[in-house]
Amino acid sequence: MGLGVNELLIVLGIVILLFGSTKIPQLMRSMGQGISEFKTGMKDKPVEDTDEEEEAKKA
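Structure tokens predicted for Sec-independent protein translocase protein TatA:
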């Protein structure tokens, strides 16, 4: 039950009508930047110990 070529072309046409051909590259660029920032944020995030884990280590 995937989308066929005709359905994808219709959806693409509707998107172009709604946003205009000049806004679409800007939207895709900002979406890509957001995804890359999310990925780097997930990689750089240090693992924080919860209070329960700290208490278990002290005991």
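DSSP finds three helices and no strands in the chain.
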